[in-house]
Amino acid sequence: MKNVIDKSITKPRFTQLLTAYGADPARWPDAERAAARAFLQDNAEARVLLNEAVLHDQWLQSSAVHRPAFSGLEARLLQRVLPARESGLMDRLLTWLLPSSDLPLRQLWRPVAVACLPLAIGLLVGFQVELVPEAYATTVEEELYLISLSDYAEVL
Amino acid sequence: MAAIVAGDQRIYADAVHRHARPVAYYAYRMLGNESEAEDIAQETFLRLWTQASRWQPGKAALSTWLHRIAHNLCIDFLRKNKPALASELSDDLVDDQLSTEEALGIEADKNMLQLALSSLPERQRSALVLTHYQGLSNKEVADILTVTVDALESLLARARCSMKAYCQADAQRHAAKGRSQ
Predict the structure, then answer these.
(1) Are the CB atoms for A10 and B147 separated by under 8 Å?
(2) CA A94 from chain center: how many Å?
(3) Angle in degrees, CA B129, A9, B166, rounded to 5
(4) How does pLDDT run across B139-175, given as a tens digit for each residue?
(5) Domain residue spans in chain A?
(6) How many of the other CB atoms lie within 10 Å of CB of A20?
(7) Which of A73, A82, B31, B158 minimizes the number of CB atoms within 10 Å of its CB?
(8) pTM attached to this predicted model
(9) What angle (nearest 5°) sits at the alpha carbon of residue B156, between those of residues B151 and B160?
C-alpha cells in the first residue's frame, strides 16, 4: 500500500491525528508519535497536510486571543479568610482516637479501648449465642443409647 | 498537600502562586469573562483549602486536580447562567452566529477566537482549551473530563473542525480588509 509506511499509521489515521491534535508532534499520542513522524518523513502529501495544520494551530495560538492580565490575582486569593476545613469521617475518627493531650494516660485509653472492643464483642457473642437449641440437645446417655441402636441395626 | 491538609497556610500560598493563573486562564477561556473567571479561581482555591484531603496524589497531579475542580465549576456556571451557550450548537448555528457577528461589525480581531471558543459545546471547548492552551497531556485531559483518550480525540477533532470554519472566515475577512485598503 502506497499510503502505509508504518503498520500502525495510514494516511487516514495521520489525517485524524492532525485533525484532533494539530501539527505539534508533542501533542500526538505517545504510542503513535514515532510512527507518525516516520510517515511524515516519507510522505509528501503528509507534509502538505501538516503545513495546513500548522496554519490552523497558529490561528488558534494567535494574539487575537485576548488574555486578561489578572493583576493581583494571587494577593486577592490570599486575602480571603480561609474557612474551617471540611474534615472527613476518617479524620474525625483519628482525632477522637488520638486526642492531643499532655497526659499520656489520656492519650492511651481510647486506642486501648478500641483494641479491646473485638475481644469484648467476641466474649459477649460467645456467651450469648446458643449454637444448638435446648430442645434438640441430647444427653450423653441418650447419645449412647442411639449408638447402640445403630449397631443393632447393622447386625440385623 | 499533607501540609495543606494540616493547615499550613504558607504551603497553601505557594500553591496559589504556582497554580492560580493557569486556573484563571482556563476559566476565562471557558467563560469569556474576567470577573467570572476570577470567581471560579477563588472557589477552586477555597476547595483546595477545605477539601485538600480528598486529593489522591497517586491518581492525579495537583494541577490536574485543580483543573478538574475548575472545570466542574465552569460547567455548573454555564448550565446555571448561560443555557444558550452551554447547549449543543450545530455547525449551522455556528455559521449563522458568525455571519451575524460579522454583519454587526464587531471588533473581530480581538473577539474572533473567543467567539469561536464560546460557540463550541462545553465539552469540546474544555477539551480544546485544556490540551491546546493549558498544555495538559491527553491522559490528564481525559481524566478531567472523565472520558477515555479515544473519546477525547473525538471531542478534539470536532472542536478543531468547528474552529477551522472560524479560521477560514477570519482569513477571508482579513483578505477583504486588505483589498478595501
Answers:
(1) no
(2) 22
(3) 35
(4) 999 999 999 999 999 999 999 999 988 877 777 777 7
(5) 11-65
(6) 23
(7) A82
(8) 0.68
(9) 155
